Amino acid sequence: MRVSEQISVLVVDDEPIIRAGLSAILDSQADITVAGTADDGEEAVEACARLRPDVLLMDIRMPRRDGLWALAELGRRGLLGQGRSRVLMLTTFDLDAYVDDALAAGASGFLLKNSSYEELTGAVRAAAAGHSALSPAVTQRIIEGHLSGRRQPSDQELARLGDLTEREVDVLRLIRDGLSNAEIAERLVVSLHTVKTHVSRVLMKTGCQSRAQAAVLARNTLS
């Protein structure tokens, strides 16, 4: 999150009523402001490049260019990540393919449209702070997916772990398990500052743009 008095959000949805409703909820919060809206992925990318919001709250299913296309294009243009914008994907569908594709592409979170106001605003704040923001239903899907071991890791995924130290692999595994920085520090008996340094290096070395993306990578590659 960039230094500012408020968290700026770009709301992206093809349904005007949904855009208006989400904007009203977010604007009602003292620390959140809606910087703009967009109705498809292409418009979202251009608006993000222009407005540089802290967070994009973006529907995954839209006509013309959808949310997954926009997420990939934002990454290609270097608009995602620390000091730039974070993306929360919003949808009525909690299908595994959407979760994997969105998080693997760098989304900071994935929320269902039936999430509560508290979950929505909390997720925006978490994403702006650089944390993962996943609804309980999606978190459970990720855990179940890891435990089921439903596919073998690709050579490209394994190669992304090649530069990690043993301690950084430990940190990545704990990120996968959903631990916060403070919980990781307690588990590894190190300082919070040390954990933050490890997390930053893990993201940099693996090319991940968020903790959520790192968690998906770890789920697919680490035992």
TrEMBL record:
<dbReference type="InterPro" id="IPR000792">
    <property type="entry name" value="Tscrpt_reg_LuxR_C"/>
</dbReference>
<protein>
    <submittedName>
        <fullName>Response regulator transcription factor</fullName>
    </submittedName>
</protein>
<dbReference type="InterPro" id="IPR001789">
    <property type="entry name" value="Sig_transdc_resp-reg_receiver"/>
</dbReference>
<keyword id="KW-0238">DNA-binding</keyword>
<keyword id="KW-0597">Phosphoprotein</keyword>
<feature type="modified residue" description="4-aspartylphosphate">
    <location>
        <position position="59"/>
    </location>
</feature>
<dbReference type="InterPro" id="IPR039420">
    <property type="entry name" value="WalR-like"/>
</dbReference>
<dbReference type="Pfam" id="PF00072">
    <property type="entry name" value="Response_reg"/>
</dbReference>
<keyword id="KW-0804">Transcription</keyword>
<dbReference type="InterPro" id="IPR011006">
    <property type="entry name" value="CheY-like_superfamily"/>
</dbReference>
<feature type="domain" description="HTH luxR-type">
    <location>
        <begin position="157"/>
        <end position="222"/>
    </location>
</feature>
<dbReference type="InterPro" id="IPR016032">
    <property type="entry name" value="Sig_transdc_resp-reg_C-effctor"/>
</dbReference>
<keyword id="KW-0805">Transcription regulation</keyword>
<dbReference type="Pfam" id="PF00196">
    <property type="entry name" value="GerE"/>
</dbReference>
<feature type="domain" description="Response regulatory">
    <location>
        <begin position="8"/>
        <end position="128"/>
    </location>
</feature>
<dbReference type="InterPro" id="IPR058245">
    <property type="entry name" value="NreC/VraR/RcsB-like_REC"/>
</dbReference>
